[in-house]
Design a protein that fits this description.
Strand order of the largest sheet: 1-2
Largest sheet: 2 strands, antiparallel
Strand content: under 5%
Radius of gyration: 20 Å
Distance between the termini: 14 Å
Shape: globular
Number of strands: 2
Amino acid sequence: MKKINLQKALAPAALIALYVFFAIFGKNFFDVYTLKTILETSYYVGFMAFGVTFVIISGGIDLSLGANMMCSALLGCYVYAKHGWPLWAGLLLCVAFGTFVGFLNGVMIAKFKLPPFIATLGTQMATLGLGAIITNVQTQRYPTVGTADGWFKDVFYRCNIGSIKGFPIGAVYLVIAFVLSLVLLNCTKFGHYVYAIGSNEEAARLSGVKTDRYKILIYTICGLFCALAGIFYAATYTTVIPGTGNGLEMNGITAVIIGGTSMAGGSGSMVGTLIGVLIMSVLKTGLPSIGLQSQWQTFITGMVVIGAVLFDMARVRAARKAK
């Protein structure tokens, strides 16, 4: 019990320690603007991380997160800007496409028995190419404040309606997504089966769980979250560039690992994932405040991931010895 409580306490302790460190040594870090920046840089990473948490707990992996997110955002903007679709229809297409990619991943893994690494690597490459082909490698730009359909920023990024100025509205959606994910994972039959499949898929199948059906659903939900991440990425950065997204999946996966979810499957939590997302955002915002460039964020994040995986491996070995 003490080991379990220690593991759960490490991520929040690390988050607090990082925030205090940057508040002391960083330039203008401890203010409302910086807090808002931390929240805003966590939107798209958070949605990806919530989705892939289900996948990793079930013992799988999804390498198509970033490419799926960017391709979905590209297609949504392309039909809006080039074909005159209403923006809301383009956003619906974004959600539908991302969800379909997740469903496709699930079918390949559950029905065709492809290893998750290979299946999702394939869809990663396919979506990277598809986005570039359809848009003819042309950068897509979502509407900004003050232009036609400028409500997009107000609704998904910063609310500037009436007396509300600069409110980080995306944080509200992030909290809603977190609560829904938390309930789905901890309070439903689906969530129990996710843990069961990750712990021992064969035992779950023999006990009557339709494992193939649930694995398809797990990857489909992950695809839905990727599509939503694409919307919030577009709302935050406005510009979506074809052929990009490769590598962004590591932001989501890293947040999940830092949050304590085991890469071996069968254990993890949405609370830990949320803390992992915030740790990633604090690092991204805090390192420039002490004069370090983005490459340091990549290096330090990589070292943190290695440490988190080593800790998880030690925990698994200790649990096996205890048995």
